[in-house]
Amino acid sequence: MNNIMYTLMALAGGVGISFQAAINSRLSAGLGTQPLVASFISFGIGALCLGLVGLAMADWQSVGAGIGQQPLWRWLGGFLGAGFVFTSVFLAPRLGVTNVMFLFIIGQLTSGMFIDSLGLFQMPVRAAQWWKIAGLSVMLCGLCLFMFGERLVQLVRH
């Protein structure tokens, strides 16, 4: 049962990411095409929401002991998250939400397989099997068709 819930949670997260890109790009347009400002507002609202939920649900006493013991690389998540939000706000109106999400997914899967196969960032090692590489290759072909299919059809017609 947990795997079904985790799968649904991941799918809902993916839906949220697409909605976020579209909504934040419209916020940027409404603020005079300012993707940095829209990203900052979005990130700020998200931080506020997480802070409020964290106040109610997190065990802050256990956090206090370990917070100063973390290696510097573990603090990069916020930087990467801010970069992701900005990139989606900036690119969604330029490339389209679907193209941006497709590119994000290919980037996520490629880097995720790299992280898993090498056990980077202290993650458990999960071998990059041939079928995983083949699946990623099929998705890359799908991305090419999705993004450049119209041009291919026009080339074939002429």
Q: Could you outline the blueprint of secondary structure elements for this entry?
A:
Layout: H1 2-30, H2 35-57, H3 60-66, H4 76-95, H5 97-118, H6 130-157
Task: Tell me what you see in this structure.
By secondary structure, the chain is mostly helical. Helices cover 82% and strands 0% of the residues. It contains 6 helices and no strands. The protein has helices at 2-30, 35-57, 60-66, 76-95, 97-118, 130-157. Helix 1 packs antiparallel against helix 2 (35-57), helix 1 (2-30) crosses helix 4 (76-95) and helix 5 packs antiparallel against helix 6. The longest helix has 29 residues, at 2-30. It is globular. The N and C termini lie far apart (53 Å). The mean pLDDT is 88.
Core attributes:
6 helices; single chain; 158 residues; 0% strand; mainly alpha
Could you tell me how far the N terminus lies from the C terminus, measured between alpha carbons in angstroms? 53 Å
Low-confidence stretches at least 5 residues in length (pLDDT < 50)? none
Relative helix content: over 70%
The mean pLDDT is 88
Gyration radius (Cα, Å) is 19 Å
Query: How much beta, percentage-wise?
Result: under 5%
Short overview:
The protein is built from six helices and no strands. It has 158 residues and is an all-alpha fold.
